[in-house]
Amino acid sequence: MRTSLSTLQKMLDNNEKIAVLTCYDATFARILENSGIDALLVGDSLGNVLQGESTTLSVTLDDMIYHTRCVARGTDKVFIITDMPFGSYQASPELAFKNACKIIAAGAHMVKIEGGHIMADTVQFLTRRGIPVCAHIGLTPQSIHQLGGYRLQGHSEKSARLLEDEAKILEKSGAGMLVIELIPAKLAEKITQTLSIPTIGIGAGNNCSGQVLVLHDMLGLSQGKKPRFIKDFMLEAKTIQAAVENYVIAVKTGQFPNIEHQF
Ligand code: KIV
């Protein structure tokens, strides 16, 4: 049986951590599913790791639909979340609905959108019309030019309070899950305790309800300077399946992320 949003919610209620990885094609999707991953994120990080771009801003709706179809074909059991790309949802809830329908028709079970207060109406519009939404706050790569760089968010008291408020508003608007990226571990823990929906952290410490990493980062494929929150699981594994199994175990047992991966 396919994992659903209510399965993931039950995992949170039973204190079981949720292990998520990004995925962009059918072959990896099958390996990840067979390794015990709970959910796959067809992330717009494909702009970086597949297309070689320095940002996610040029990823198109057609790209996301294509990769969602590929991932969906490679799976029977996992829950699939797909990023709505830059420009496909920000202008209005109606635009977001029209484009989210295409992503869901391609095989996703939930769409992910970046942004806080400003996205509350859109989250409500989509969820009231039957489209599950994962919100995403903290470092939101589609706002990179506004944020001025890939850096830690929520480190001042004011910005921490803003993120706490945003998390609450997004949950109230109907978000079924929340990705929190690159914020202090203590703040992520506080947000997680306040909400009743799962929080999925990346660079947000190990007291979130689950964790996500970009597949290419956790397989040690990404070149250049590695952000602190990444762990290369291939270093201690002979096969990709073993590396992913170790990631799933490390997330579920709370061994990843550890103190050296957090802020
Ligand atoms: O696109 C992506 O891979 C993401 C994760 C980093 C959360 O949004």
UniProtKB/TrEMBL annotation:
> Signal sequence: where?
none
GO biological processes = methylation; pantothenate biosynthetic process
User: What Enzyme Commission number does this protein have?
Assistant: 2.1.2.11
Gene Ontology CC:
cytoplasm
Note accompanying the cofactor annotation: Binds 1 Mg(2+) ion per subunit.
Per the record, the pathway is: Cofactor biosynthesis; (R)-pantothenate biosynthesis; (R)-pantoate from 3-methyl-2-oxobutanoate: step 1/2
> InterPro entries from the entry?
Pantoate_hydroxy_MeTrfase, Pyrv/PenolPyrv_kinase-like_dom, Pyrv_kinase-like_dom_sf
Active-site annotation: 181
The record's SUPFAM superfamilies line, in alphabetical order, gives: Phosphoenolpyruvate/pyruvate domain (SSF51621)
Q: Which GO terms describe its molecular function?
A: 3-methyl-2-oxobutanoate hydroxymethyltransferase activity; magnesium ion binding; methyltransferase activity
Quote the CDD domains the UniProt record gives: KPHMT-like
Lineage, top-rank taxon, reads Bacteria
Cofactor(s) listed in the protein's UniProt record:
Mg(2+)
Record-listed 3-methyl-2-oxobutanoate binding positions: 44-45, 83, 112
So what does this thing catalyse? (6R)-5,10-methylene-5,6,7,8-tetrahydrofolate + 3-methyl-2-oxobutanoate + H2O = 2-dehydropantoate + (6S)-5,6,7,8-tetrahydrofolate
Whether Metal-binding counts among this entry's keywords is yes
Keywords, alphabetical: Cytoplasm, Magnesium, Metal-binding, Methyltransferase, Pantothenate biosynthesis, Transferase
Q: Which principal EC class is assigned to this enzyme?
A: transferase
Read off the NCBIfam families from this record: panB, PRK00311.1
Q: What does this protein do?
A: Catalyzes the reversible reaction in which hydroxymethyl group from 5,10-methylenetetrahydrofolate is transferred onto alpha-ketoisovalerate to form ketopantoate.
- What family is it from? Belongs to the PanB family.
Q: How does it assemble?
A: Homodecamer; pentamer of dimers.
User: Could you identify this protein by its name?
Assistant: 3-methyl-2-oxobutanoate hydroxymethyltransferase
* Source taxonomy: Bacteria, Pseudomonadati, Pseudomonadota, Betaproteobacteria, Nitrosomonadales
